[in-house]
Design a protein that fits this description.
Blueprint lengths: L5 E4 L2 E4 L2 H18 L4 E3 H10 L3 H9 L2 H9 L2 E3 L3 H9 L4 H11 L3
Antiparallel strand pairs: 1-2, 3-4
Helix pairs in contact: 2-6
Length: 110
């Protein structure tokens, strides 16, 4: 064997190629990252995180143009990461799924 990683495949050991190892590592890192995203944050945490990331003004403007979104925001005690309101607002603010996850991770520290 070489100094790299090996796997047992169909009863035979073989060395992993660099691309295979990179793919496994990327999947593992993504799983760890996804596990670190909180399921929910408070409205205060969300507000502070948006202010820190210069998203608060755009968020307020978006709320002012959408009565349903304004009501959802005002009546929520906490924001669920996968709720349609959060996902929709993230999209309207131009955030990717990863950026929205990062915002939740950051907000949970506040």
């Amino acid at each position: 064997f070489t100094d790299g990683w090996v796997v047992l495949e169909n009863g035979n050991w073989r060395s992993l190629k660099a691309a295979e190892l990179s793919a496994i590592e990327a999947k593992y890192v993504e799983e760890l990252r996804a596990a670190s995203v909180p399921a929910s944050i408070s409205r205060v945490q969300a507000m502070k995180a948006m202010k820190a990331n210069n998203l608060w003004d755009a968020f307020k403007t978006t709320l002012q143009t959408n009565v349903d979104a304004m009501e959802e925001w005002e009546l929520s005690l906490e924001l669920q990461r996968n709720h349609v309101f959060v996902v929709s607002m993230g999209t309207l603010l131009g955030l990717t799924e990863t950026e929205l996850d990062d915002l939740f991770i950051f907000a949970a520290t506040l």
